[in-house]
Automatic annotation (TrEMBL):
Gene Ontology biological process terms in this record: methylation
Keyword Plastid applies: no
Any GO MF annotation of the entry: methyltransferase activity
Domain tRNA/rRNA methyltransferase SpoU type: 27-165
Name by which UniProt lists this protein: TrmH family RNA methyltransferase
SUPFAM superfamilies named among the record's database cross-references: alpha/beta knot
UniProt cross-references to Pfam families, sorted A to Z: SpoU_methylase (PF00588)
Entry keywords, A to Z: Methyltransferase, Transferase
Length: 184
């Protein structure tokens, strides 16, 4: 029977995964206006070690009082910057050494499981209603989509972000050598 891990066991488990993590992940959030969506995105970023977060367009800021209801303090653990345009956010990400991959159902997009997510990658997600803007899609180095087989047209932006960030880390962890203490 499984039981929940104790806090010290959780810390040990997290340390194990940090040791297997070398790549840097960034995120551009374009015009996400709902506080609960941003809070959920921030919590995902903190859980998966997203290094930098750029907010653009009319994105709500992490300091908004309602963001904390879903972020649960993770907003204080992240480095973020608000920029006026998505082009500025892409430029900032590239200057920080990231390749930008927009997550969007768009012509020419690759399925997420085939997208170039290796190395230092900055994912980019767009607004709740209309996704990534044409300007963001044009500025990105590549575009990927999350394959879906259900009867809905798209995913919630916070869910899509979580899937994309998790896939980025999964690929890295799958390819990483197992630390010595794991082999014992």
């Amino acid at each position: 029977m499984s039981t929940q891990l104790r806090p010290t066991d959780v810390k040990r488990l997290n340390r194990h995964w940090r040791q297997r993590t070398q790549g840097r992940v960034g995120l551009i959030v374009e015009s996400v206006t709902q506080p609960f969506n941003l809070g959920s995105i921030l919590r995902t970023c903190a859980a998966f070690g997203v290094e930098a977060l750029w907010l653009s367009g009319n994105a709500i800021e992490p300091t908004h009082p309602q963001v904390g209801k879903t972020a649960l303090g993770s907003e204080k653990k992240l480095r973020w910057e608000k920029l006026r345009t998505s082009a500025e956010a892409v430029t900032a990400a590239r200057e920080a050494g990231f390749r930008v991959v927009a997550i969007e159902l768009a012509t020419g997009a690759a399925p997420l499981h085939e997208a170039p997510l290796e190395g230092d990658v900055c994912l980019a997600v767009g607004a709740e209603d209309h996704g990534c803007s044409p300007a963001l899609l044009a500025a990105a180095d590549s575009v990927a989509f999350i394959p879906q087989i259900g009867r809905v047209g798209s995913l919630n932006v916070a869910v899509a972000t979580a899937i994309a960030v998790a896939e980025t880390r999964r690929r890295e962890w799958q390819a990483a050598p197992v630390p010595a203490e794991d082999g014992a």
